[in-house]
Specification:
The protein has about 400 residues and is an alpha/beta fold. Helix content is about 40%, strand content about 15%. The chain has helices at about 10-20, 35-40, 55-65, 80-90, 100-105, 110-135, 180-200, 240-245, 265-280, 300-310, 340-345, 350-365, 365-370, 395-400, and strands spanning about 1-5, 25-30, 70, 90-95, 140-145, 160-165, 165-170, 200-210, 210, 260-265, 285-290, 295-300. Mean pLDDT is about 95; it is low at about 395-404. It binds sulfoquinovose-uridine-C1,5'-diphosphate.
Amino acid sequence: MRVFIAGGDGYLGWSLVQYLGARGHQVGAADLFLRRRWVEEMGSWSALPIASMRERLQAFKERFGEELRFWEGDLRDYGFVEALVQEFQPDAIVHLGECPSAPYSMMDVHHAVFVQTNNITTTFNLLFAMRDHRPQAHLVKLGTMGEYGTPRMDIPEGFFEVEFRGRRERLPFPRQAGSWYHWSKVHGSNNIMLACKIWKLRATDVMQGVVFGTGIDEREEDERFLTRLDFDQSFGTAVNRYCCQAVIGHPLTPFGQGRQRRGFLPLRDSMQCLTLAIENPPAGSEYRVFNQFQEVYDVTEMARKVQKAGADLGLKVEVRNLENPRLEAEEHYYNPDHQHLVDLGYKPAHDVETEMRLMIQDLMKYRARIEAKREVLIPDVRWDGRREKVRFLELVKTGNAPAG
Ligand code: USQ
């Protein structure tokens, strides 16, 4: 298949380029390298050293014997998007070209507006380019489990049957996102749903859980294939941050009570799931929703697992709760469905603990890079708009100076 990846330089994007290349797909990608700039803006860098796109393209050619088609440009520019869709004529378009950070969107009005306009505009441009130049293509759009929030009832995959005043209807399950970023994904979902309905397009909206991991296959000895791995407060997701913390002897940092439950999945499983969605498109016009994660845990359970994985590798790892910079439920019901991908054949590659051990081993080689940016591990972006570093909860109680 010809697969176009919007956001091919990112954490998921560069991984997916390789994953699909290894499976014989013809891959094209676009990027403006904004993720590199945002992480720099947060005072950080990727824990794994990442090659330039020029080096990445060269590595791809050496490994797969053919060029990776790459366009550098802005997906907010309709002319750019239209031209590349016309030229590449993709069978599938995978939209990973959004700003993926809740804290980044909560910094101030400028960041909130940027995240929402960037995410909504890029999706619109892809939808219109599909309508006008490639209506048979299948859009695989990265959404988030965070669109649903944490309702006190089970979460279906996108839609549910509801009865109200004696009538029954199949309706989109209510979205109750908790950040401007997560709402940007809801707005994107709504726009895709309407586009599929009125233009008869087909799309898979992937409600992805929290991804963690460094590796997708055995090629990581060539550093040019490494994907980025962030650990700052905005672009580092919980387990990626924990593993970076573990390798430099920094306490692992569940926020608040630490009972926030989320669906988690390793990077290599995310690749497997996205590929299943790409290779199994809806037969005709359809808007379908997949919940994409391996298992549900709370953020303290995940910290304990990282602690154990670290101990297995000889690391002494402490877990210490931090004051929560976010406004979110810290103890709640959470039971989302995730059957659609299993029905297509999704099988987790490893258990969570094995994945964590592999990840910590990879990161230990780059310990100095994490140590050099240690200060970015403590958040200061708060949901109430204040910009002030949070403190370790038990230290607040005992009155000691905050560490970290
Ligand atoms: N958390 C901690 N300690 C940390 C970092 C995070 O306890 O050091 C907590 C957060 O408070 C939150 C949970 O871990 O309750 C998840 O936070 P996260 O930063 O790992 O993930 P989140 O902001 O929810 O967003 C991330 C990705 C996003 C993706 C989403 C899936 O950035 O792109 O869509 O995970 S989900 O969380 O299911 O919405």
